[in-house]
Design brief:
The complex is a heterotrimer of chains A (about 290), B (about 325) and C (about 240). Chain A is about 75% helix and about 0% strand. By secondary structure, chain A is mainly alpha-helical. Chain A has a two-stranded antiparallel sheet. In chain A, strand 1 and strand 2 form a beta hairpin. The longest helix of chain A is centred in the N-terminal third of the chain and has 31 residues. Chain A is globular. Chain A starts with a helix and ends in an 8-residue tail after the last helix. Chain B has about 325 residues and is an all-alpha fold. Chain B has a single domain, classed as ABC transporter involved in vitamin B12 uptake, BtuC (Orthogonal Bundle). Chain B has a two-stranded antiparallel ribbon with strand order 1-2. Chain B starts with a helix and ends with a helix. About 0% of the residues of chain B have low confidence. With about 240 residues, chain C is an alpha/beta fold. Chain C is about 40% helix and about 25% strand. In chain C, the strands form two sheets. Chain C has a six-stranded mixed β-sheet with strand order 6-7-8-3-9-10, with helices on both faces. In chain C, helix 2 packs across helix 3, helix 3 crosses helix 4 and helix 4 crosses helix 5. The relative contact order of chain C is 0.18. Chains A and B meet through helix 4, helix 9 and helix 11 of A and helix 5, helix 6, helix 13 and helix 15 of B.
Chain lengths: ~290, ~325, ~240
């Protein structure tokens, strides 16, 4: 009984830390889907690109993986702006978003995955840093740095973006676009331009999320697919347009998944997130804190 | 004035005026011809390759009923396809005496029921939520089968096909091919019959503007459910013969995302507005894939398909069929 | 003679915003009712709640003696309640004739229980398009239409459902003087054929020419309901909407 309780507590703590990491990878979709209403299911592909950028920086140049992705942030930002421009010209302007827009990102997802396979092969890749091994000893428990650092990174990203959205001019413009495009147009601001910036930000977060991912686990190109459902489950469960909701959902999912994996085996874990998603959609599609 | 306009419309109908039954007859003739040609080529590779292309015609047509006709994107093709495949595995172990066509029907019924259930839960929401839910469905179903030891779990199951084909004799793959051709005829006939019926008009109205359709008296939820069931059932039937085709079925191959990419890419490239598009897409892209995977590699295959998909979706949204239609006007 | 449409205590909220509060309305069979009010007063929300596109949290809607609460929009259309949308929403990939085919197939056919032949449907579509002067464009697509033609298509599609009650939501907005007269004549002719019509408009001369009774909606509440000439002199109506 005691061993079980100990396992449970460990699972909860690990789940909590993993939840913070999930927030890091999901915040990009919280922006693109939650605020811009663009269903970018290719987001995990760009997370993986971030992971491989960290991998190259780490193994080829010997830099810290997080630093490596920070260096690539401008590239991701520009890529995001470009992607939005294509999306806008091809779909949003023609008001043909649902079928073709979704298929567009679906195609991008595959191109990215296969591109990575061709470039890096299907072997698992990982990074080395002082925090990829070892634990933080807090007396009553030990927290693996491998989980703790991505958790902190995720928290930093959420807090940072929340501050950006509420305190800066562009950030508030993005919030305005999310709520009422028509009003924004009347104020002579260009919604497309603001959305472009927001989408660029979304991609930039994917890069950092990728760093977090490759710290937590070794990556290979196809693991992106697991994350599609996880990320959208988190955003839908948390409620579109709500960062705090997303964080709560991320942590909840992390804990539930970890408990499931601990007591029922890791092969059941994917079913958890997707099952949660299906149930949420069926029962309360607006999510926990959704509008 | 009214009568002359009516006459013009009559003539237009007359050009494509084959009744549904006559169309089925034409399709059967074409199918027999294709089988004959493949037989004449003689190599079993021809049968295997042709089987794959015809399978994609069925998958693409099935996807298009819900996607192109009704406007709801199903990403969970793998779930329905693999459901059909795995139901065959189960029946192969429990009731091996059952003829394959019956197994195909059972697979179709099961997949159709799953479609009904998923649809009932999610079709009341916006289209994008339905699409996300189908993604989730594919992973849930895959996880379920990966953990189910009776069908081999993660290790997979061996399904040894009979040595000789029933009814026609000869290699079993020829029998599978005939079955798939028959399924193809059924799928195309269904798609075309839908297009020209009240159901097809209802689907189009939902695709163009669901709220306006509802206000015009269209029972949108019911029609969407019908589309989901039909679409899922045909996908399940397309997957049912798979275990005999490959002799070994495991979750990685059964739920291979190539099925999803192709089932979506081929209709989008070929054209989604009518039954011809998925055929054109499957033949051209499928043929290209067979060629590329033999000459280059199968990874490059998916890359090319992905590039074509993105290219067409951005530049030629009406697909290949649409390009020809525009030129005719 | 009982009312064709009976709305009572209708309330609708969007989050913290109350769009409609305690709205009551009665429309007699064959009546021409005008509904006016400032932008944002809830007119379109009211239409959406009556027709079932939106779900009202409070109050009830009774149509032709039957309770509407819980009925979907398409069920209400089949019972004879039709509306045109403020911003035309045609079926873009279908021709004009095919646009009208949808309500005939799904509202009219379902009602009578027997199906009309394809030939008869086409004839009917062309006939309806003729009523609005669009018969020569029967096989064109909606994107080829001008603004007023789209409005006419919108009305024709609502009429194709053979409704007992038609709600015309700002069908005349932005049209020229002559075009307004066209739509006005159309609606009056329709009413002459026995269709009850609710006209929602901002164009006062059309409202006054059309309405037998006039209701005014301001900030989600009905503030006046009665003879048009008296309603427009009501000081509250003048203050809230008509102004000077």
């Amino acid at each position: 009984m005691d061993a079980d309780a100990g396992l449970l507590i460990n699972a909860v703590i690990s789940g909590l830390l993993i939840g913070g990491f999930y927030a890091a990878v999901s915040i990009g979709v919280a922006i693109s889907f939650g605020m811009l209403d663009i269903v970018n299911i290719a987001h995990p592909a760009f997370i993986l690109l971030g992971s491989y950028a960290a991998f190259i920086g780490n193994t080829v140049f010997g830099i810290d993986p997080i630093l490596a992705t920070v260096i690539t942030l401008p590239a991701f930002y520009v890529l995001g702006m470009l992607a939005y421009q294509v999306y806008y010209v091809a779909f949003e302007r023609r008001d043909d978003q649902s079928l073709r827009g979704l298929s567009f990102f679906f195609g991008i997802l595959f191109i990215a995955e296969v591109g990575l396979i061709l470039a890096f092969g299907v072997d698992y890749r990982s990074v080395q840093a002082w925090y990829t091994t070892g634990n933080l000893n807090l007396g009553i428990t030990e927290l693996p740095w491998r989980l703790l650092v991505p958790f902190l990174l995720g928290l930093a990203m959420v807090v940072g973006l929340q501050l950006f959205l509420s305190r800066t001019f562009i950030g508030r413009a993005i919030q305005a676009v999310a709520q009422d495009q028509q009003a924004l147009r009347l104020m002579a601001a260009n919604p497309a331009k603001i959305k472009r910036i927001a989408f660029g930000l979304s991609f930039a977060t994917a890069a950092l999320g990728g760093a977090a991912l490759i710290i937590i686990q070794p990556v290979e190109p196809s693991i992106g697919r697991e994350y599609i459902g996880r990320i959208f489950a988190i955003c839908v469960l948390g409620g579109l347009g709500s960062f705090p909701g997303m964080v709560i959902a991320a942590v909840t999912l992390g804990i539930v998944e970890t408990i499931t994996a601990t007591f029922f085996g890791p092969s059941w874990a994917p079913a958890v997130s997707f099952g949660v998603l299906l149930i949420t959609l069926a029962v309360r599609p607006s999510g926990i804190l959704g509008r | 004035m009214v009568s002359s306009v009516v006459k013009a419309e009559e003539e237009r109908e007359g050009l494509r005026g084959l009744s549904n039954l006559a169309f089925v007859g034409v399709l059967i003739l074409v199918a027999v011809a294709i089988f004959g040609i493949t037989l004449w080529i003689g190599q079993s590779f021809a049968f295997f390759a042709a089987y794959v292309v015809v399978q994609y015609i069925v998958l693409g047509t099935a996807w298009n009923i819900l996607g192109g006709y009704t406007g709801y994107v199903n990403f969970g093709i793998a779930a329905f396809f693999a459901l059909g495949a795995y139901s065959t595995v189960v029946m192969h172990k429990l009731t091996p005496w059952m003829p394959l066509p019956v197994m195909v029907l059972v697979g179709g019924v099961l997949a159709g029921l799953v479609g009904l259930g998923t649809g009932y839960l999610t079709l009341r929401l916006r289209g994008v939520f339905f699409s996300i839910a189908t993604l989730a469905l594919a992973v849930v179903v895959q996880t379920l089968f990966t953990n189910w030891d009776f069908v081999g779990g993660a290790r997979g199951a061996y399904v040894v096909p009979p040595r000789f084909a029933p009814l026609i004799g000869g290699p079993y793959v020829e029998y599978l091919f005939i079955l798939m051709l028959g399924l193809c005829v059924a799928a195309l006939a269904t798609a075309r019959a839908i297009e020209r019926s009240a159901l097809g008009y209802g689907f189009a109205a939902i695709r163009d503007d669901e709220a306006a359709a509802e206000a015009s008296g269209v029972p949108t939820l019911r029609l969407k459910l019908i589309a989901t069931v039909l679409s899922g059932a045909f996908m399940g039937m397309a997957g049912a013969p798979l275990p005999y085709y490959v002799s070994y079925l495991d979750p990685t191959s059964g739920f291979n995302l190539n099925y999803a990419v192709n089932a979506i890419a081929m209709p989008l490239i070929g054209g989604t507005s009518n039954w011809v598009g998925p055929v054109v897409g499957a033949v051209l892209v499928g043929g290209l894939q067979q060629y590329v995977s033999v000459t280059i590699s199968s990874a490059v295959n998916v890359l090319i398909t992905g590039l074509l998909l993105v290219g067409f979706v951005v530049l030629a949204p009406q697909g290949i069929v649409g390009l020809f239609q525009r030129r005719r006007r | 003679m009982s009312a064709l449409l009976h709305v009572e205590g209708l309330g609708k909220r969007f989050g913290g915003f109350t769009a409609l509060q305690d709205v009551g309305l009665e429309v007699q069979p064959g009546e021409r009712l005008g509904l006016i009010g400032p932008n944002g007063s809830g007119k379109s929300t009211l239409v959406n709640c009556i027709c079932g596109t939106l779900h009202n949290e409070q109050g009830s809607v009774r149509f032709d003696g039957a309770a509407m609460n819980g009925m979907t929009a398409h069920q209400r259309t089949r019972l004879g309640l039709a509306r045109s949308f403020q911003l035309p929403r045609p079926f873009g990939s279908l021709t004009l004739a095919e646009n009208l085919r949808i309500p005939i197939l799904y509202a009219v056919n379902a009602r009578s229980g027997h199906s009309i032949s394809a030939q008869a449907i086409l004839t009917r579509c062309i006939e309806l398009l003729g009523h609005v002067g669009l018969a020569d464009k029967a096989h064109r697509l909606p994107r080829d239409l001008t603004q007023i033609e789209m409005r006419k298509l919108e009305l024709a599609r609502a009429m194709a459902a053979e409704p007992k009650l038609l709600i015309a939501d700002e069908a005349m907005a932005g049209l020229s003087h002559a075009e307004i007269d066209e739509i006005l004549a159309l609606l009056i002719r329709l009413n002459g054929q026995g269709v009850t019509v609710i006209m929602i408009e901002h164009i006062m001369r059309a409202v006054m020419a059309f309405s037998q009774r006039l209701a005014v909606l301001v900030a989600g509440r009905k503030i006046a309901d009665g003879d048009p000439k008296e309603v427009v002199r009501d000081p509250e109506v003048v203050r809230a909407y008509l102004g000077e």
